[in-house]
Amino acid sequence: MMRIKNLIAMFFMVTVLVNGATASTETANLNGWKTVVWTPGTEVAPESGLSIECLQDKVILTVTGDIFMTRVSGSLWSLDVDINDNANPDKPVLAPSIGATEGSNDLWTGKSQQVEIPWTKDMIRELTVVMADEASIEADRVVTLSHETVEMQPGENIRLSASYTLEGVPQTGIVWSIDNTDVAEIDQTGLLVAAKEGTATVKATTTDGRNLYATCALTVVKKEAVLPGDVNNDGVVAVNDVVLAINAVLGQTPEGFVHEAADMSGDGQIMVNDVVLMINVILGVNSSSVKARKFLEDNFGEIVPSSPK
């Protein structure tokens, strides 16, 4: 009787192992992207759109409908994949039709509904398949800049920003560069500072090894005549300019601030006396006056200047 119970238990365990195989891992990324991680012995959920057929000498991955595969990567049981190590006879040499990405562990990259991997099921430890519809593929892998063109004057600054996604996942890691540092300079926060007239190309490149990039065309034009006191460069001298000048005195220089217009005294620094002279322009007087200083105190209170810049 005990033997019969043991046989029944063993049969039940085998049945569970065969018919109750665990499912592969599926991750939904942004904007229609999907990642499936498959190991031999697991089942791929039908709703994933992916089917895997294991033949004697290869594994065939197939998707249907409007879904495409864009990348397949994987590893062996005993060896991590290195598709560029063809000198090692223990590692498979991939067929020429496999469009692997140089310098990565990807087995295949591109856009297809069927991919053949020249490995047997017993060799495979894990396969990762990335999929998306055509619209998502076309919209992805693109670096987007806040500005495609910029026109500046010497001395001006502007901060550029860049963003991109890869396979529906937002990425970080951008390196900024410029091809003409005589015209302008850019730091790794995207702050672009114009130096002199000319043209240059600003480039934002990803640091993930795929070298995706976007460019911004920069033109630095001759500095136009500056209206003294017109700090925001809107053609008039008004209270808004006074506020911006006070911020500069306090050490808070806003983007687009025209330093030359705020430097009313022409000494290269933005100080309280420059603010007073600016108020004189608004009030229609030609020299420092008690009226100007009273206007300053009544509207802005006591101003404690920062260290001269």
Q: Give the low-pLDDT segments.
A: 1-20, 79-103, 303-309
Helix percent band:
10-25%
**Rg, Å, rounded:** 32 Å
Distance between the termini: 96 Å
Give the overall silhouette: elongated
Got a strand count? Answer: 19
Percent of sequence in beta strands: 25-35%
The pLDDT mean sits at 76
Reading side by side through the largest sheet, how are the strands ordered?
Answer: 1-2-8-5-6
Largest sheet: 5 strands, antiparallel
Question: What sequence of helices (H) and strands (E) makes up the elements?
Answer: HEEEEEEEEHEEEEEEEEEEEHHHH
Structural class designation: alpha+beta
How many alpha or pi helices?
A: 6
Task: Summarize the topology.
Layout: H1 2-19, E1 25-28, E2 34-38, E3 50-54, E4 59-63, E5 67-76, E6 106-112, E7 114-117, E8 124-133, H2 134-139, E9 144-145, E10 149-152, E11 157-159, E12 162-163, E13 165-166, E14 169-170, E15 174-178, E16 184-186, E17 191-194, E18 198-206, E19 213-220, H3 239-249, H4 259-262, H5 272-283, H6 290-300
Helix pairs in contact: 3-5, 5-6
Question: What would your notes on this structure say?
Answer:
- This protein is α+β, with helices and mostly antiparallel strands and 309 residues long.
- The protein contains six helices and 19 strands.
- Strands 1-2-8-5-6 form a five-stranded antiparallel sheet.
- A hairpin with a 6-residue loop joins strand 18 and strand 19.
- It is elongated and about 95 Å long.
- The protein starts with a helix and ends in a 9-residue tail after the last helix.
